[in-house]
Amino acid sequence: xxxxxxxxxxxxxxxxxxxxxxxxxxxxxxxxxxxxxxxxxxxxxxxxxxxxxxxxxxxxxxxxxxxxxxxxxxxxxxxxxxxxxxxxxxxxxxxxxxxxxxxxxxxxxxxxxxxxxxxxxxxxxxxxxxxxxxxxxxxxxxxxxxx
Length: 147
Hints:
The chain is α+β, with helices and mostly antiparallel strands and 147 residues long. The chain has a domain at 3-24 and 69-145: START domain (Alpha-D-Glucose-1,6-Bisphosphate, Chain A, domain 4, 2-Layer Sandwich), CATH 3.30.530. The chain has helices spanning 15-23, 28-31, 118-121, 123-145; strands at 3-11, 35-40, 51-58, 61-73, 77-82, 89-98, 104-113. The protein has a seven-stranded antiparallel beta sheet with strand order 1-7-6-5-4-3-2.
């Protein structure tokens, strides 16, 4: 069973500020509840082909994985993929100005993939947990950037 979870939030901060903060993997542990660390595997800055390793805790398990950046349009789009572990995944961020004065940002966060092995048995429970986590992560990002 495939998992495809998309959430969005409107953040009361300009698009360039939200996008530059969220796209910087070194900020991930600050706004993702489950990510405990991030490290560049290729020299920054972010570009297609860049690789970043993450360590996370999800559903009681520690996961270590490396994402490769497959698409990056600063201020608009970031797509990262990993083929590692029991859950090969693609994560996509999009940002767009929102509101009459464009002083807000609509950000979407989408995770999709196809769990393998034991992880495939609980795909629907995993999707529900991912949705809850993503909503919390976007709320935390909003809190950090709206200060």
